[in-house]
Design a protein that fits this description.
CATH class: Mainly Alpha
CATH superfamily: YgfB uncharacterised protein family PF03695
Largest sheet: none
Helix content: 55-70%
CATH topology: Four Helix Bundle (Hemerythrin (Met), subunit A)
Order of helices and strands: HHHHHHHHHH
Shape: globular
Distance between the termini: 27 Å
């Protein structure tokens, strides 16, 4: 029986360095945004798990130094994806690789990057996220905090939620519960 474990600091460093290298396309997500992306995939419709999300994550195919590096990087990313899926399935407490603290003065920080990655997972197959008529409103409501904190939702009617730092911090505080509820929406 295989025990699914979280990545250790050395494994995280290996992935981080790779994602920040010239071996991947410009605009590739960093480790924190990739974690958000993998969480989005694990949270959303089950059909996302079966699509070619690695190519989407890398914006194409990376230039690996060797087949060994190729296997190591993909294995570590899949290990993290499986770990996130397992935690959601078991209802274990969700741990983000960054604090649930919003940036001051509408700047960006690690939480902004994580939310950006989460919202990027929706772009893999947006129709699958919003296809079900009865669920689309609940899905939109549950992804709203991540969308607003990522800076990707540009709606004047929602701007008031971003003006006040306390409001933004409340959005951040709702992320974990929303992710768990979103997971359940797609599994019930």
């Amino acid at each position: 029986m295989t025990i699914i474990q979280a990545l250790n600091s050395k494994q995280i460093e290996t992935i981080s360095e790779f994602l920040e290298s010239e071996q991947v396309e410009d605009g590739c997500l960093d480790y924190i945004a990739m974690h958000g992306f993998l969480t989005g995939l694990a949270t959303g419709p089950e059909s996302l798990i079966d699509c070619n999300w690695l190519e989407f994550l890398f914006h194409g195919v990376p230039e690996y130094d060797s087949e060994q590096q190729h296997q190591e990087i993909e294995s570590l990313i899949k290990q993290l994806a499986t770990y996130i899926q397992r935690n959601l399935y078991l209802g274990d407490p969700m741990e983000l690789p960054c604090p649930l603290k919003v940036a001051e003065n509408n700047e960006t920080n690690d939480l902004t990057d994580w939310c950006f990655g989460f919202i990027e997972a929706i772009a893999v197959d947006e129709d699958a996220w919003f296809d079900s008529e009865g669920l689309s409103e609940a899905v939109a409501e549950l992804i709203l905090p991540a969308g607003l904190l990522s800076g990707q939702f540009d709606d004047p009617e929602l701007e008031h939620l971003l003006v006040d730092e306390q409001e933004r911090q409340q959005l951040a505080a709702s992320l974990i519960e929303n992710i768990q509820n979103l997971y359940l929406v797609f599994r019930e």
